[in-house]
Amino acid sequence: MSQRVLIVMGSDSDLKVMKGACDALDALGVEYEVRISSAHRVPDKTARLAREAAAGGFGAIIAGAGGAAHLPGVVAANTVLPVIGVPIESGGLGGVDALYAIVQMPRGIPVATVAVNGAYNAGLLAAQILAAGDPELGRRLVAYRESLAAQVEKKDDDLQR
Ligand code: RP5
Asked: Which residues bind substrate (predicted)?
């Protein structure tokens, strides 16, 4: 059975951004589960979700949060599955607060951090991680890259007319 992706976010207010990860995984035919779990408001639940993820058939985790965004780091501390962090713009600092909180992990507990609100790329990266053990998914990713290239070529051709 193909591995799934676990998508966790700190609040339902993150959903509009984190939907980007769902869109990318849908486009590639990768199954996922979406959960709301805050590192601060429900710390025990967050740790449990991360600890049980590998046994639950997940091969990668995407964790998105804004503000003092400890969620991806706490998830990473509780699993050796690869964790992708999505800094989310919220409050007055434009997402830089979340970016710094997620990207500056201590040596030993890595989180692969994407751009502020970069949930779509998080979905792609999770798919690329799973593709290491799923050649068919790898072929779909190659086709996606080819479609990107074709779009650029079409725009260039249009410009030459
Ligand atoms: C973070 O605080 C969440 O990830 C969200 O981005 C931000 C605001 O949360 P709410 O107050 O909208 O629940 O924990």
From this structure: 11, 14, 41
